Amino acid sequence: MNPSPVQYFRNAAAVISYAPAGYIRLEWQPVASTATELRAIYEHVVRAMQHHHATALMTIHHQRPPMPPEVQAWLAEEWLPRAVREVGYGRCAIVEAATPLSRLAARAVGANVTGRLNYQYFDSETAADAWLRG
Q1: Sheet holding 118-122, edge to edge
Q2: Origin, by domain of life (predicted)?
Q3: Which CATH number does the domain housing residue 52 bear?
Q4: 1 assigned to some structural domain
Q5: What is the pLDDT of residues 75-91, one digit of tens each?
Q6: What domain range includes position 21?
Q7: 3-state SS record for 46-109
């Protein structure tokens, strides 16, 4: 039996926790958020990675609303390179959303990733977890 993740941060839009397997979990809720709120959640992710000395992330999109284009650009151009530089962020498992627009938004960010980040898309948390452990 796997130990439960340890919650780090929670609000209406997201839950950030540390999985005992050594990565951060970002579980999105089906709540619309402003660009400012989304950026703040990602800043909490960086702090969680620093706190737990984790360099991998599982982001669970299931019912996450589509992300605004300006946040997609900020993630790809600013947040991702800074996370790689500051915490050694190196692996991201994306559990895809149910809605096509949300899937497209996540893939748009991935298409603009350059550098050392290794990421994969998954249909289930189980498959994402196995990849991050591997």
Answers
A1: 6-10, 14-19, 23-28, 56-60, 91-95, 118-122
A2: Bacteria
A3: 3.30.750.24
A4: no
A5: 989 999 999 999 999 99
A6: 6-133
A7: HHHHHHHCCCEEEEECCCCCCCCHHHHHHHHHHHHHHHHHHHCCCEEEEECCCCHHHHHHHHHH
